[in-house]
Amino acid sequence: MDKPKHHIFVCASFRAQGAPQGICHKKEALGLIPYLESELSDRGMSDVAVSATACLNLCEKGPVVVVYPENFWYGEIDSEDKVDEILDALEEGESCEDYLIN
Questions:
Q1: Which residues have a Cβ under 8 Å from the Cβ of 61 and sit 6 or more positions away?
Q2: Counting beta carbons within 10 angstroms of the beta carbon of residue 58, is it exposed (0 to 12), middle (13 to 18) or buried (19 or more)?
Q3: Of 23, 34, 43, 97, which has the maximum CB count within 10 A?
């Protein structure tokens, strides 16, 4: 695989001891990953990688999704519709303003 153009990180709330304890995990953030991968494939966005992360320390905004290298941090991403909006914006080279964490 070539170096991805974008990398999407989904907070999985993992802590140093390995146990997920944060809000993102409790709000089923890991369930977003298969949907993201499927949707990226359907859109032909093969240059985007998706990974789960350790706790991103923004529990009050969870589930949190981050897009690099753009450094877009999104909060309260708890539905496939919100993921679709983020991917729509990414395809346009823009951020999805509705969910950006400022």
A1: 75, 76, 101
A2: middle
A3: 23
